[in-house]
Amino acid sequence: MTVISTYQPYFSPFGGFFEKAFHSDILVLMDTVQFPLGSTWLTRNRFKNDQGVLWIIIPVWKRGLGLQRICDVRICNEGRWAEKCLKALKTAYKNAPYFEDHVNFLQGIFFEPSERLIDLNVKIIRYLMEHMAVSSRLVLLSGLGIETKEPRLSVEVAKRIGANDFLAQTGAKKYLDSRLFQKEGIGLKFYSPRPVIYPQLWGEFLPNLSAFDMLFNCGPKAGNILRGRRVQGV
C-alpha cells in the first residue's frame, strides 16, 4: 500500500507539514502551481523571540512579472536581508538547547543564497525531514509532467505515482472530488492536524511556528513528538 500526500513547498514549514509527511510514503511538492500574488507561506514563516512572533521573510521578484509558477519565482538577492534574517534568528535562539547544532546550515542558507525560491525551500524541507527522521520520499510535481489543475490534478498525481491512498487535510474537501478518486480506485482520506505543544523559549506557548522552533528547542526529540501523535480521520 502506497500513501501519498501533497503540499506546496512552503518556506521553513510548520510542524503539521511534517506530521503529514510522517503518515505518507511519498510527499509531492506542488511546485508548478501558481505563485500567489499576495502574502504567502512560500516566502515567509513565523519564529519566536522575546517580543513574541518573529517573521522571517524571503524577498522575491514579482513586479512586472505577472502570474508565475512557484518553480519560476526568483529570490531578490539584493540588500542585506540575509544578514538581517540570520542575526534575528541568532538573537532569538541563542539560548535554545540545540540551536548551535544548526547554525552552520542557517549560515549556508543565508550567505550562499539560491537563485530560485523553490531551491531554497526544498533544501530547507529536506534538512528538516532529515533531522526529524522523516523517511517519506520527496517528489516535485515539475518532475511528473502533469499539466492539469484541480480537481483533476491530485488524482493524476496519485495515478502517476501508483498510489493506493491519497492523504489530505480536511480543508481540501472543498476542491477535491471524491468521485474522481473512487473512479480510479484510489482511496481518499482526510485528517485534521492539531498544534503540538513542546518546550519553547520566551514565555507563552505559540502554536504552528516554523518546525525549526521545535528543532532548536527539542533537538532529536522533535521528530518523536510529531511521530507519536495519532492522525485523526485516517
Automatic annotation (TrEMBL):
One Pfam family per UniProt: WbqC
Domain of life: Bacteria
Protein name: WbqC-like family protein
Lineage start: Bacteria, Pseudomonadati, Thermodesulfobacteriota, Desulfobacteria, Desulfobacterales
